[in-house]
Structure formats: structure tokens, C-alpha cells
Amino acid sequence: MKKLQLIAILLVLTIVSTSCKSESKKIDSTKEKSYIVEAKTTSINWTAYKTTSKTPVKGQFTKLNVLNAKKANNSIDALNGIKFSIPVSSLFTKDSIRDGKLKKFFFGVMDNTELLSGTIHMNNETSGTVDLTMNGISQVLPITYVVSDQMVTIEALMDLDNWKAQPAIESLNKVCEDLHKGDDGISKTWSEVKIDIATYLKYE
């Protein structure tokens, strides 16, 4: 009889122990993961335009500084409120001569533009704004975006006139006068720049 009681007690202890371990595993497996912005998995591309027929000139910035990355429950919250800076020295167009001209005769003409800086505001599921500072001027840049889990793509159309960049545009057009001429012989540098950003958020 005592043996049967001992066996019964051991069985109960085994069941309780197994149940506790199972519950512990369940709690661990349901622990929420977080999204976070990383500079190294973010690309910043831009398209400027020359000639009256609006010939595209593509480039990118190869360096990004994320100043206040934070963990969040979703991609939009991870990006919302992010402050960033972009060194103008990281400009890259696959043409070193063009890169030099853009840095010297475009950005070099502006005030306090070693860095482009801003703050991202994700207003809803598809659109937001960036408080962007360039040429010593802060303006609101509307953005649209598509979120696909960890991947977020952001688009914007920037009018450089809003940052009073016309002197910089004229400076660049002067040094690139012949290169910015189309079939009509007119040299033109547009104030419109398209921005395309892709960021793959860390998820852990």
C-alpha cells in the first residue's frame, strides 16, 4: 500500500513539474519582439534632373546617422520620431568629377550644409512628413511609404526652392552649362529632386 502511495505521489510531482516547464516555454515563446531602425540596412537614393527634356541624374548618399533609434512593436512606430543626419561628403553618383562639382558648386554654396538633418513623422499607415534642414532652413517635406513587415520604402518629391537653393542651382548650372544642354541648346537644372529610401528594420 505504501508503495502504491509513493508511486502516486511521484506521478503527481512529475505531472506538475512537466506542466510548469511547458508553461515556462509557452511564456518565452510568446514574448514580443521589437523593431528598430539601423543605418547599415538603409539606402538613400535621389534623382535630380537636367535639360529641358528633364533627363534624370541618379545618385545616393552612402552614409546615414540615426541619432535616436528605439525599439517599437511595429515598423511605423520604430520610424516615427527618428532623428537623422546625412553627411554631404557621402554623396555618390558613380562619377567622381560630378561628385566633386555637386559638393563644391551646389552644396558648397549653401549655408551650414555639411549635414542634411531631419526628423521623421509617420502620420498614418501610408503618409507622413520629414522636418528637413538644409541650407540653414527647416521645412516640412511630405512623404509616402509602403510597409511590408521589416521592409519600409519611402518616397518624396523635393522642391529645392522651398530651401532657398536657387543660388546653388544657378551655381551648378553655370559650371555644368554644356553638360546640362539638351537638343534645343538650352541649359537647365531643375529644382525638383525625387527621394527614394529603403530601410530593412532589425527585428529581435
Automatic annotation (TrEMBL):
InterPro entries, per database record: Lipid/polyisoprenoid-bd_YceI (IPR007372), TTHA0802/YceI-like_sf (IPR036761)
Organism in which the protein naturally occurs: Lutibacter oricola
Top-rank taxon, per record: Bacteria
Keywords: Signal
Pfam families in the cross-refs: YceI
Name listed for the protein in its UniProt record: YceI-like domain-containing protein
Residue ranges of domain Lipid/polyisoprenoid-binding YceI-like in the record: 35-164
SUPFAM superfamilies: YceI-like (SSF101874)
Signal peptide positions (record): 1-21
